[in-house]
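re the bet — no i am not wrong, look at it urself. input seq straight from the record:
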Amino acid sequence: MNENFKGKTFVFTGSLASIGREKAKKEVVKRGGTCKGYIDKNTSYLVVGLEPLEHYLSGTKSTKLLKAEEYIKKGHAIKIITDLEFLSILKESNIL
C-alpha cells in the first residue's frame, strides 16, 4: 500500500477530468484509503474537479471547499488538490 493513501480519507467534489469518480474511489480503496461524500476534521484530501476549480478561481467556492478551509483554519491538515494532482499521486504509487 502507498503511504499517500494508507489510512487517509479522500473527498471528491465536481467532475474529474482525469479519471472517473467511481474509478478514483476504487483506486483509493485499493491503496488502503477511504472515501467520503462530506468534509470533516478527519478528511486528508479534498480532490477538486474542473467546475469547482473554475468557480474557486473566480471567487466562488463550493460548500466542500468552504468547509475544508474552515477546518484548515482550525489547524486540521486537509490538503486541497486538483484532480490532476490526484492522478499524479496515483501514478507515483505504480499501481495505476
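see?? The helical segments are 21-30, 50-57, 63-73, 83-92. told u. also The longest helix spans residues 63-73. so pay up
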